[in-house]
Amino acid sequence: MTRNIDLDSHDSSDKNYSRNSQKILNKFNVSLGYEVKIVTKKAEFFGIILPRYETFSDKYIVLKLKSGYNIGIEIENIIEIISKNVDQLSKKPIAKSDPRDNATANDDNNSRNLFDKRNGSKLLPKILLISTGGTIASKIDYRTGGVTSLLSASELYSAFPELSDYGYIYPEFLFNEYSENMNPNHWSALADRISFAIRNEHYDGIIVSHGTDTMHYTSSALSFALQNVPIPVVLVGSQRSSDRPSSDAFSNLVGAIRFIKDTKHSGIFVCMHHNTSDEVIACHLGTRVRKNHTSKRDAFKSLDAMPFALIENSDITYNKLLHNGMERANISKNFTSKTAFSDKVFLLKFYPGFSSSFLENFLQMDYKVIILEGTGLGHVSKDCFPILEKLIEAGIFVFMTSQCIFGTVRMTVYDTGRDLLALGVIPLSNMSSETAVVKAMWALGNNTGAEDFVRIMKTDCSSEISNMLPLV
Amino acid sequence: MTRNIDLDSHDSSDKNYSRNSQKILNKFNVSLGYEVKIVTKKAEFFGIILPRYETFSDKYIVLKLKSGYNIGIEIENIIEIISKNVDQLSKKPIAKSDPRDNATANDDNNSRNLFDKRNGSKLLPKILLISTGGTIASKIDYRTGGVTSLLSASELYSAFPELSDYGYIYPEFLFNEYSENMNPNHWSALADRISFAIRNEHYDGIIVSHGTDTMHYTSSALSFALQNVPIPVVLVGSQRSSDRPSSDAFSNLVGAIRFIKDTKHSGIFVCMHHNTSDEVIACHLGTRVRKNHTSKRDAFKSLDAMPFALIENSDITYNKLLHNGMERANISKNFTSKTAFSDKVFLLKFYPGFSSSFLENFLQMDYKVIILEGTGLGHVSKDCFPILEKLIEAGIFVFMTSQCIFGTVRMTVYDTGRDLLALGVIPLSNMSSETAVVKAMWALGNNTGAEDFVRIMKTDCSSEISNMLPLV
């Protein structure tokens, strides 16, 4: 079970421009990321040179215009390319400096919570933007074109200079990983970095740019690892790469910044499109969100509740039912970080025809926990009962969630559920199976004793159990 | 991998009435299912004696009123119980006889398709109602009270005498199984029974009452096993037991009957509530439906499309985009039944932290197919690649679906997908993972050669692949 975090794939060559297009870039001494004026026979264009789409002809240079749209400019029409502002193209983060950075650091213990100090002021929030990879961090969809060179948070920021209107952003590159490759080691590294920032640096909020495939797993992981965070920590992804006219990256990012600027609440959140328009961004609780569509911009949905907040321009509407105990001031002193995760947890989805004898494999393996994703209210077929009993007797914890996704596991309603309860299978209420896997990894990873472990799994830590919430 | 179909659990004792309540039933020589008049000190009640709710006090007799509502009548208030009509309480099906039954059978080859013969007539449809168990077939929620005695389709029909206003119903008991216990053997038995009815009996439609937990798996199984059915075959379930005032059983059943009566289309369908009211019943395609909520009445949702039809009182609104080639007359001659299913198929849901070494187990086991439920557009972590390659080299077929539920697997967009394609992993478009498991079991079970098998899996058979459908 060896896993690696690959930090070496950050390559800065312009390899996706080749032959003709590279020649003209060389001729005018410009490169990817340069802010330029391109003079053609018919018009002048101002913008930033982007990587070429893999599917684009080599006869074009792709320019990101101020409007956010990209155009391809035919090379043979180009008369001149003039580099406009070399300073802005340095490889260093290009955040505006925050006037508050000149103040004495640590002047009091609450200095990190600047929000409370600037009521009524016009100060922009100071935000750490941690890049982990994924579509949002690609100017072009980097997985189609090998564009691994422009993936850092700083470059994301340079692709959206408008972000500086909303906040002081301190971009930072943590790793560059497709989110399907994110594993508990990445969660630990990310949680440790955030924990350090919370304890030692003074941000009003933290944004994590993340691939969408497993963003809901990571948001769960951070929710358990970092409890009572004193500031909002917001994961943001994108279903369209940031250079595409249809990209949702910018609006999701701006939604996250607006939320950090205006909210009195802290916690781990996910900000993504609420519907197919760019107008409303939903802010979901980190443990109660799921990617429910492969490609739509509003793929992420809160489970069994409306989102924590809806952000529409400068208006933020809160779901009042979800706000218990999440006021920043109340909890900043109780911040805890337990960032270890065990990998001895298996997620098993039941289906008709599932062979109960398969379960016997677990007697020979090293798993400590099985999360059963059962049918309906939390069922598996009765032929599984004897082997489940054996597993439980052998000390393996077996928990039940539902493959329905929405709704609550209730194992007291039917015989099947009651039989499973009698065997020692433990229902997990309306925790999603994805969140349940992460919670079990976390609870095991932090060396909890058996009794404590079961108690922790059954008890709401981070809104992962929300039976009291109204259904929508 | 032994599985049994248990046909012996059909017990007709009145064990859920005990002590006081049983005494009074004995005294007046009546029993469960009797249609009675109960005279109390204050009023008279007409209805059918239902099993006692497990949680009810023993001081009550539960009576199902004509209105569909149930009341508990306190024993100490009961003066007399008069059995009203013993004939209606026989153990035999109590369907009204259809005048058409007097016609010469098999007078021509199309006689089974009575629908086409009675355009403009007021004849009610002749429907086979096959009971397989589940909440819908319980007058009380039988899994809480051991009420296994009143589960047949005939008793369901007697609980809803109003059904006779909508059709000539021929109830039949096939088995009595919680749907989480349904397995491919049940699918075969059910498909065989329906196939026989289509070839030898003359129904306008068939309704299968089924537990909801795995109803979408069974509807997929029937869709593959029985292709080009000449009549509608409709699975109907209930999220509330049929004796509860809030039961959705009656409205779902009536919706199915109305659909059979009025539609020109044939196929395998699922009829369940469209929303939380009783007004609109959705008719879903059998391969494109999923139980998405543990308890809500509108738990079943069509995937990536609106339902095939919406039934609102006597109005049926069709989704015109789903009707290709499903007109009854066109396909009745092409009806095929291939009702075998293999159990050599494993459904594996990927999650972050999934240990790739787990996959090595499959080298020692007897599975021929793995359905990977990947993330997003169809991804698993890169550390799985080498072992997936080994499995594929060893002759195991590996297919990809998405845990997102909605949307389409597209493995050409990102590196990860393209790498998996190169290894030989086969994407299954927008087939749900539940349907994919069933299809693989069916395609394997009917002795398809390797090449044919992959072709069949990738080709739309029964609307399980619907990329052309508009998203909703």
Notes on the structure:
The structure is a homodimer of 472-residue chains. Chain A has 472 residues and is α/β, with parallel strands linked by helices. Residues 1-15, 85-122, 140-151 and 468-472 of chain A have low confidence and may be disordered. The first copy, chain A, is built from 12 helices and 21 strands. In chain A, strand 18, helix 8 and strand 19 (369-374) form a beta-alpha-beta unit. In chain A, the strands form 5 sheets. In chain A, strands 7-6-8-10-11-12-15-16 form an 8-stranded mixed beta sheet, with helices on both faces. Chain A has a 5-stranded antiparallel beta sheet with strand order 4-3-2-1-5, with no helix packed on it. Chain A has 3 domains: 19-87, SH3 type barrels; 108-337, Rossmann fold; 345-458, Rossmann fold. In chain A, helix 4 crosses helix 5 (215-225) and helix 5 (215-225) packs parallel to helix 11. Chains A and B meet through strand 18 and helix 11 of A and strand 18 and helix 12 of B.
